[in-house]
Each structure stands twice: as structure tokens, then as C-alpha cells.
Amino acid sequence: MARDASFFRPLGGSELPRFAGRSTFMRLPMIEDPAEVDIALVGFPWDSGSTNRVGQRHGPREIRSNSTMMRLVHQASRIAPYDLCRIADLGDVPVNPINIDDTLARATAFYRSIREAGAAPLTAGGDHLGTLPVLRGIFAGEPMALVQFDSHSDTNDTYFGDNPYTHGTPFRRAIEEGILDAERIVQIGIRGSLYTPYDLDWAHEQGIRIIEIEEYFDLGPDKVIEEIRRVVGLAPTYVTFDVDALDPVYAPGTGTPEVGGFTTPEAQRMIRGLRDLNLVGADVMEVAPPFDTADITALTGANLMFELLCVLADAIAKRR
User: Fold this and answer.
1) In the sheet that 144-149 helps form, which strands lie side by side, from edge to edge?
2) Is 8 buried (19+), middle (13-18) or exposed (0-12) by CB count in 10 A?
3) pTM of whole model > 0.70?
4) 248-273 as b/e: b if 16+ CB within 10 A
5) CA quadruple 105, 169, 163, 179: dihedral, nearest 10
6) What is the pLDDT of residues 251-272, one digit of tens each?
């Protein structure tokens, strides 16, 4: 397929060294109008929903910096996303770091403008509460499916009394609001100690397919891909990747690390297995540079963004 000359193109490493120039996602142009793109790359620099370790507000900047290493074509699938779609960096969500409700409202409006312009968002965050306003903004009336790579279900009700908005509650809120179809949600990699034996009961009662890490290791990535495809079917599907889904040796810079996770190559394999799903957006969340070592997590976040970009661009091009 011939590349449309009007599509945006990342700045090449032979044009300007990768350590030089403006820091944008994938070295793409920075634009303001979402009508100019099919896929909007967005930073969500916010961590006010975190209940313990913070620093995820710095994630988008470091992911941008490390994304200079991404090139043009996926090595395994041979997907060339910039030949398939108009893709650019749309900047950051206009957050309010001292007011959760205000940020949720601002972010919902921001992502709604992306949807109304006909684009799909690919976001770098940011704590996981940020996914809630993304989902609110892109909701088009039909409940969406969700593929969630995570060590936590994030379907708790409240924290510290009756506070409903934290990084541990976004998907419960999205289900309650009718944005997500619980029976089309699959969560992969869930693990870690619990507050009570009943922590996951509500999620199971709603019909969420939870693949805890022990089952993941029994099944392996290929069987998990089959299960993902069975659960979400043809429904409009959003993909969220919390980097704490990875074992901390692969992603030490995150808000709530949990030992015993899957590997980066396994994560790449599973994302590649999402090809041909009806994808409508995606994110990589919970990169916390203050806890990172040698940019390992930020570089991993940039690579996961590129993996998601490839399958998202392929899905959009096929729908077109």
C-alpha cells in the first residue's frame, strides 16, 4: 500500500541525532487540532489518584524522551503505522494537580474533543485513574470491551472513607456508568496480597474475566490471546496497560509494584495478538520515573506504546 504523502512522518535519526531536537512522542510533529489525525498521541501527566508512591505525573515526559528510539516499521508484524494513519503528538491533558474532580472534568472534555474530531487516543500516563476520563470522553453510546494488563483489578469501591476516585477504582466507576460491558472485560496478570479474601468478589459478580497470574503461567501467552479474543469478540475495545503488570525487574519505576509478573517479551507477544480486534483506543499507565532505574520503565513504556500504536493503526486502517 502506497504511503499517503500527507501523513505525518517521524523525524529520522539520520536527519537529526535522536538525542537532539524537540521531545515529542515518536519524534512526530506536535499539533493542536485532533481533526488533523487519525490517532492522537497524548500525555496525561497526573498522579493525584495515587494512594502510595507518586511520580507518575512525570511519566509522559520520560516516555516521550525514550520514544526517540522507536523507528518506522514493526520488526515482527511489519506493520508500518505511519503509512496507515495520520499520527501526531497532541500534547498533554490540561490537568489540575490539586483537584481530582476538576481534572476528571477537564480530561473528559479533552478526550471527547478527540472523539468528536474522528480520532482515536493513545495515551501515556499518569496514574490509572486517568483511564476513567479517557473512557468517558471516547464513549459513543455503545458499552465498550476492555483488555486490561495489570497486577490489580482496580474495581475497588472507595478508599479512605467514601472517596470514589483513586487509581484503584476506575473500572468499577466505568462499569457503573455503563461505559464498559463487564462481560467483555478481561484482566490479565492480577496478583499481589489482598486486603480481604473478598476483594475480587464484586468484579467476578459482574462477569469480568480475571486471569490471575497463576492461571496466566498455566495457560501461557498464546492461550491467553485466545481467551482475550473470545471475551471481547467484535465489540469496540479499549486496551489499558498498567506497567505494574510486568514483573518489577522489567518495570521498577511504577506506583504499586508487585513481584511475580510476566516478562516484557510476553507482554509484547500478547499485544501483537490483539491485531484484528475492533480497537478504539489504548493507553500505557503508571510509569513513575522517580522510582525508575536507567530509564528501564520509561523505555519499556515507549516500546509498549509503539506496540499498541501498530495494532491500533492497523485496526483503524482496516475499518476505513
Assistant:
1) 87-92, 39-44, 120-125, 279-285, 237-242, 144-149, 180-190, 209-212
2) middle
3) yes
4) bebbbbbbbbbeebbebebbbbbbbb
5) 40
6) 999 999 999 999 999 999 999 9
